[in-house]
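Project outcomes to date are best conveyed with an example. Our students and postdoctoral researchers have been running inverse folding experiments weekly, and each run begins with a structure described purely in tokens. The record below, which covers 311 residues, was selected by the lab manager from last quarter's runs and is presented without edits.
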């Protein structure tokens, strides 16, 4: 950080608006969009059990942090299963997932007129895809996006499938937007994201229902993956009436842990909690009694968690 009123001695690179100038592989934050696409395309049933045993593509094993033999769609996101989303992606043509990513705003400029904005890499028009590429793009490798693009994608989920242009100033009346995803399916995804938050605990906000997906991606330096990481937490709140989408990215965390669920989730909780309280958004945690996700009515206090790896 720096004081914009006193830039003496400040390196120019520190003044970049990293929300729009820096691109990263989004990692597991795109997994909800894979499940959404599979449901919209009808290649999976909502209650289907997916085989998530070990398998290889092009001689490379698809690895899970917490391997399980079988998982539901909810569990695939709750456990951040690379194998699960890979299985789903292989049921669809690559164009299906690329279309979803584009509809959510990936590879598209924000049109905010900000200097230095990058649009990321999607390669949506590719004609030939190896199976290993079809799999890895389902857990956020081989594509890049800015933090703001990821936030816009989650805002589309929080709008239950309606894509709206971004604006720095308040637009009144609000833009109607364009429906790009099924409302019913998107609401299902929001419900699963709430379960992810409840399991993770670190991203929860006292008194509010939130939905998140954490992610961890290895960094690329000089064209090769290195043992440095980017930790993400992306999500929306409050679940009963989503008002905010937020992405927290920690570049190359140094505190010993690097998983998004451990590193960026507590920061997400603090920032989202402040935004909700500062803008007097009504608490909705107890309102979960009347929803299908009844377990979400539990209020989780910050700091109440076990030491666990969450991708």
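After processing, the design step wrote out the following sequence:
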């Amino acid at each position: 950080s720096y004081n914009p009123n006193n830039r003496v001695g400040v390196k120019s690179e520190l003044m970049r608006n990293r929300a729009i100038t820096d691109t990263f592989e989004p990692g597991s934050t795109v997994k909800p969009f894979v499940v959404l696409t599979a449901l919209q395309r009808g290649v999976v049933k909502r209650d289907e059990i997916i085989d998530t045993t070990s398998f290889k593509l092009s001689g490379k094993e698809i690895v899970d942090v917490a391997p399980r033999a079988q998982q539901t769609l909810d569990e695939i996101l709750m456990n951040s299963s690379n194998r699960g989303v890979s299985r789903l992606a292989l049921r669809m043509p690559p164009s299906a997932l690329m279309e979803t990513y584009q509809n959510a705003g990936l590879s598209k400029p924000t049109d905010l007129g900000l200097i230095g904005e990058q649009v990321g890499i999607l390669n949506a028009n590719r004609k030939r895809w190896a199976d290993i590429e079809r799999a890895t793009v389902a857990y956020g490798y081989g594509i890049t996006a800015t933090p703001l693009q990821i936030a816009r994608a989650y805002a589309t989920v929080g709008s239950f499938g309606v894509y709206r242009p971004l604006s720095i100033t308040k637009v009144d009346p609000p833009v109607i937007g364009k429906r790009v995803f099924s409302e019913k399916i998107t609401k299902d995804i929001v419900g699963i994201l709430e379960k992810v938050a409840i399991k993770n605990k670190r991203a929860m906000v006292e008194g509010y229902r939130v939905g998140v997906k954490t992610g961890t991606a290895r960094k690329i330096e000089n064209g090769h993956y290195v043992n440095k990481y980017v930790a993400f937490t992306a999500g929306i709140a409050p679940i009963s009436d989503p008002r905010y989408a937020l992405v927290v990215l920690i570049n190359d965390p140094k505190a010993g842990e690097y998983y998004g669920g451990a590193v960026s989730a507590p920061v997400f909780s603090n920032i989202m909690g402040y935004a909700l309280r500062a803008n007097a958004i009504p608490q909705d945690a107890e309102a979960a009694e009347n929803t299908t996700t009844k377990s979400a009515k539990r209020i989780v206090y910050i700091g109440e968690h076990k030491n666990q790896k969450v991708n």
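The first strand starts at residue 50 and ends at 51. Residues 12-279 form a domain with the Beta-lactamase fold (CATH 3.40.710.10). The training component of this project remains on track.
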